[in-house]
Amino acid sequence: MSFSFKGKHGGSHPDDNKSRTSKLPIEDATVPKIMVFPVSMHIGAPAKPVVEIGDKVKAGQLIAEAGGFVSANIYSSVSGEVIAMEKRPTVGGESDAIIIKNDYSYTMADPIVEPGNAAGMSKDEILDTVRKAGIVGMGGATFPTSVKLSPPPGMTVDTLVINGAECEPYSTSDHRVMVEHPDEIIKGINLSRKLFPLLKHIYIGIEDNKPDAIKALEEASAEFKDITVRPLKAMYPRGSEKNLIKSVTGREVPPGGLPAAVRCVVLNTSTIRSCYRACELGEPLIERVVSVSGTPIKNPKNLRVKIGTPMDSLIDDCGGFSEVPGKVLGGGPMMGKPVSDLGVPIIKGTTAITVLTPEEAHIGEEQNCIMCAECVNVCPVSLQPILISEAFERGNIEKAKELGAMDCIECGNCSFICPSKIPLLDNIRAAKAAIKQKEEA
Amino acid sequence: MAQAVDVKGKLRVGPSPHIRTARTSSWVMSQVMIAMIPPTIAATYFFGWWVLVMVAIGIVTAVASEYIYQKLTYKPITIHDNTAAVTGMLIGLSLPVTAPIWMIMFGSIFAIIIVKQMGGGVGKNYFNPAVAGRVAIKAFFTPWLANWVLPGGFFGSGYRGVDAVSTATPLEYLGDGAQTVAAEVPGLWDLFMGFNLGGNVGETSKLAILIGMLYLIFRRIINPKIPILYILTTTVVMGLWANFNFDFMMAHALTGTLFFAATYMATDYSSGSLTPEGKTVFAIGAGLLTAFFRIAFNYPGGVGFAILIMNALAPSIDSKLMPRIYGHKKRPAVKFNRQSENN
Fold it and tell me: Would you place residue B152 in the very low, low, confident or very high pLDDT band (cuts 50, 70, 90)?
C-alpha cells in the first residue's frame, strides 16, 4: 500500500492482494464433463445458436453466430454433444445457454483461417478474422473487438494503447499473460499496424507493481522503436479506459464519446494476444487465463481455462474453500459481479474469480456524512459523489444530472473509500437509471 | 464437484464495490482527538492539572448536550461518531485556565445545540461549532475572561477563577497598526515552545500543535494545504505590512490562536470547503482575513472571525469552484449548497 497525503488524487489504493498469484505460472485447468456457453457473453445482441440438441460438435466449432454488427460468434471449447439449450445463471444475469457434454476426445474443428499467414493478411482480412474468431474485450468490458478496431468514418487513430494496467486487486491473469507471452502481445500489436495506417504511437501501459511484466514487454518490443512500455504508478482505477488514455496520452475522451474521438484505440493485453492467435493460428476465442484467488481459496492459481467451464470446477482445481466464503465474484473486488451459484460459467470477459470472506465483504454500518471529501479526492473523473448521492436521495434528478452523474464510470472508489460507509455508487447508479428513464419518457 | 464447504444460499450478492476501506468516521474523529493530546500535555505542563478538568468538562458537556438534544427531538443518536467529543475538547482547550466551569459548559452547549444541531447536524452545519462557541463566549462574557494569565506549572495553578492577575496579550502590542515587535512581546523561541506564555491553554506551545498537525497530515486526516496556506498567508501579509521585518512576521505566525485554529479548526470538514480548489481559497481567505483583523483592530479574536466568515462563504466558493469533470471543457454549471435542504 503506497502512502500519500490527503488531497485530490483521482484514485485510491486498496490493498492489491496480488502476491498470492502474481508469481505462479499459468496452469491448465481441469476440463469438466459439462460445459455451459451462454449466447450472451458480450455487449450487444445475443449470438444465435447454429446447433441443435443432439448435435455432435468439435472443439473450435461455431455453435452460435453473431446476432448483429455489435455481437460476437461463440465456439465450443470442447468436442462432444449438445445436450441442452436452456436458461442458465451467468455472471451478470440469466442467459440462454448451449450445454455441451464433453467427450474428452478433443477432436479439433478446422482452423478459422489457414495458419501461418498472418503476416500476409490485408487490413480487411485481419478485421474479418478477428470478427470471425468471436474476440471481445477480455479485460471485462466484452465489447466486440472488430467493432472497436473499425472506428467510425472520419475518425483517425494515431495512438494504440495496450492496457496491461490490471488495477483490480487480486487479479493477475493479464500480469501472467504479459510475463509468459510477451512475444504474442507484440506480434498482435504489429499485426494491428495494418489497421491504422496513421498510427504514430503505441503504448503499453502497465502498473509499476508488475516490474517483471514491464521487463518482459520491454525486451520483447526492443526492436520496435515506436512501441513504448509505459510504467504507471499503481492506483485504482488506472486501467479504466478513460483514465488510461489520460495517463499515457494526456488526452480526455469527450463525454459520451469513443476513444477514437481523441484518436486512440485501447485494447487489453489478452485481447490483442487473442487477435494474434486468431490470425496466425486460426484459433477462435475458446480459452482464456483466469486468476482464482482470495482468502478462502486453498491454493490460489492462474489457470488456462476453456470458455464455458463452470466456476466450481476451477475452485476445485484450487483445492476448494478453506472457509465459508462471503462473496464469490466474477472479476475483482472493485468492479466484479457477484454470483449466487458456482455453476456459473467462465465467459470471454472473466478475468478472475475473486472469493472474499464474509468479513472482507462486510460493509460497515452507515453513518452520517462528515464531509471528509475522500469521495471527491478519489473520483477518477472529478465528480463530487456525495453531492450526486444526496441530490438523488432528495429526489432531485435534475441536479444529479447537472452534477455529472452520467459521467460516472462506476469504478466504485467513492463507496470503497467512504468512512461513513454511504452507498454512494448505489445512489449514483440509481440516479443514472432515473435520468435515462426521464430522458426516454 | 465435491467441495468441503457448502455455499448454497450463503453467498451474498450486493452490488460492487465489494470491499470497503477499514476507516470509519468514528475512527477519523478519534484521530483528531489523539492529535490534540500534545497541546493538552503542553497545556497541563504549563498551566496545571486543571487543564485536564477543563477538557473533560468540555467533552462531557458537548456529548451530553448532543445526546439530550437528539433524544428530545426524536433524532437518531450520533454521539458515537465522536464529532461532538472533538468539539468539546476544542472548547476546553481554547479557553484560558481561569475560565469558570459554567463558561466551558456554556461554550460546549452553544456549539453543539445552536451551531451544530440547529445548523443541520453533523456534516451540514455552516459554522465550526467550536469556533462559534468560543466567539460567543468572548462576545457575551469578556468581563469574566482574564485572557492573559501567566502559567504557574503543574501544581502551581489549578482553577484560580477570576481573581488571577491578568495582563495584556502580546497581540495587543503586535496588532492595531504596529509594524515592529514591542519589547513586551516574548521572544520567538518562547512563543514557539510556549514558555512563559499566557492565553488560551491549548494554543500556547506551537511545538505541541505542530506535532499534532504532522500527525493529522501523516494519518491522512487533514489536507496539509489548509493549515500550511493559512499560516503562510497570514505570515506573508504581516511581512508585507512590516517590510518583511523577520521578527515581526514570525511573532505574528507564532502568536495567538493562529497555529491552533489553522490545525484543528480551519480543517474541520463540515464547515470548510468540499472541493479541492475551494480548500485552497478557504485557507488563503482565512489567512488574509486574520492578517487584516490583526492590522486593523486591537482585538485578539481575529482568527475566530476569519474562520467564521470563511465558513459562511464556503458553500458559494464550492459552487464556483466545482472541478471540471473528465472530458468536459468547463466546470459544471450547477448551483449547489449541500448544507441546504432545498438542493
Answer: low
C-alpha–C-alpha distance, residues B249 and B238, integer Å: 6
Segment 284-303 of chain A within 8 Å of chain B by CB: 296
Shortest distance, CA B14 to any CA of chain A (angstroms): 7
Split into its structural domains, chain B has a count of: 1
Q: In Å, how far is A182's CA from the nearest CA of chain B?
A: 31
CA A261 to chain CA centroid, nearest Å: 22
Domain membership of residue B17 (yes or no) is no
Q: Confirm whether B63 is domain-assigned.
A: yes
Task: Give me the interface pTM, i.e. the ipTM.
Answer: 0.91
**Distance in angstroms (rounded) separating the CA atoms of residues B227 and A328:** 44
Task: State the nearest Cα–Cα gap between A236 and chain B, in angstroms.
Answer: 12
C-alpha cell at A435: 435520468
Q: Amino acid identity of A28? A: D
Residues 6+ away with beta carbon under 8 Å from A74: A37, A39, A41, A47, A62, A63, A64, A65, A98, A134
Kindly list the domain boundaries of chain A, sorted by start residue: 17-31+117-362, 374-440
Residue of chain A with shortest Cα separation from B2: A316
H-only helix segments in A269-333: 269-281, 311-317
In angstroms, the CA B138 to CA A2 distance is 45
CA distance B181 to B249: 9
Q: Which helix (DSSP H) or strand (DSSP E) does residue A203 occupy?
A: strand A201-207
Mutant choice from A1, A12, A368 vs B, greatest count of B C-beta within 10 A: A368
B250 contact partners, CB below 8 Å, separation of at least 6: B188, B191, B235
Q: Quick one: pLDDT band at residue B155, thresholds 50, 70, 90?
A: low
A chain contacts of residue B223, beta-carbon cutoff 8 Å: 5-7, 373
Q: Count CB neighbours of A93 within 10 A.
A: 9
CA separation for the pair B156, B149 (Å, rounded): 13
Contacts of B83 in chain A (CB under 8 A): 370
- Interface A-B, measured as beta-carbon pairs within 8 A, has a size of 228
Q: What are phi and psi of A191, to 5 degrees?
A: -65, -40
- Residue B278 in domain: yes
Query: Residue B164 in 3-state DSSP?
Result: coil
Give the model confidence (pLDDT) of A380-427 as tens digits: 999 999 999 999 999 999 999 999 999 999 999 999 999 999 999 999
Nearest to B270 by CA among B133, B122, B155: B122
Q: What domain range is B102 assigned to?
A: 26-320
CATH topology of domain A17-31+117-362: Rossmann fold (3.40.50)
Would the CA dihedral through B196, B197, B198, B202 be positive or negative? Answer: negative
* Sheet of A80-90, strand order: A34-38, A93-102, A80-90, A56-57
pTM of the full structure: 0.92
The residues with which B325 forms a beta bridge, in sequence order, are none
Per the listing, cell 509468459 goes with: A180
Q: Do A407 and B328 touch (CB under 8 A)?
A: yes
Q: Which CATH number belongs to the domain containing residue B304 in this structure?
A: 1.10.3430
Q: Are B283 and B230 in contact (CB under 8 A)?
A: yes
Check if B330 contacts A (Cβ < 8 Å): no
